Amino acid sequence: MDYIRDFDIKLDKEMYYAGETLGGHVILDTTENFKLRAVRLILRGKAHAEWKVLISGDRQTVKDDQYFIDDRACIFGKEKHDGPIPVLPRGLHTFPFKFQLPESSLPCSFESKPGYIRYYIKVTLDIPYASPPQGMKYFTIIGPHIDCMDEQYLKPLVGHDKKTTCCLWCEKGPLVITSVLERTAYVCGESIKLRTEIDNQGQDNVRLTVKLIQYVEYFIERGVLGVGKHTLLSIFNLILFRSTWSISLSGAYLEWERRYLTSY
């Protein structure tokens, strides 16, 4: 519409925990007076999953939605279509709003190919005899809010493996690897420190590769049993060390830090 110069949604911040108050403003800048019945808001949290399956030889799409939040508010005008319609004078207008997020644990925001979890504010301008302009603003839910220094998370996580190549008379020396994480819980923006010990008693060169993998399981209610799907998402793949020596590498210690952790 030519008489609307600017229509925007501003939030107080971009990331929230469950139970916090979500606040912001709807900004509307107009060049002339016009009738505006109402400014309506929808706060919504939605999970969506969708993929294709083979059923009786036919390839079909299964999908499902789940809503965690579905709140509504009217921040200007009236909810019902009765009485005179107010006139909004030209100029810059700011309409504040607030929503109380549920205290219950909300799943954190998530994006992937088979599905996603998204939270957003949707604003509709109810203008008589016109197609209502709409705007959307996405925000991020993080959590659950945990204390990584809690005693239950401070126990180190140890992984150990041993591999021997060939067998019988051509058997080579074993390759032993031991890795230790300082604790079992991390939050966004935090460094992950991994300490690895390699004992290579063979003659072959070795290469150490570290992957951060996220395990995701999706489930769609379809009939009695439903349909399930799981994926392994590689967050990053890093080659930390590659031996170029022909001699054995015994008791090599490697320490590394990365800041690529997205959520817990």
UniProtKB/TrEMBL annotation:
SUPFAM superfamilies: E set domains
Domain Arrestin-like N-terminal, chain residue ranges per copy: 8-145
Family annotation (Pfam families): Arrestin_N
Protein name, as recorded: Arrestin domain-containing protein 2
A GO cellular-component term linked to this record: cytoplasm
GO biological process terms on file: protein transport
Family: Belongs to the arrestin family.
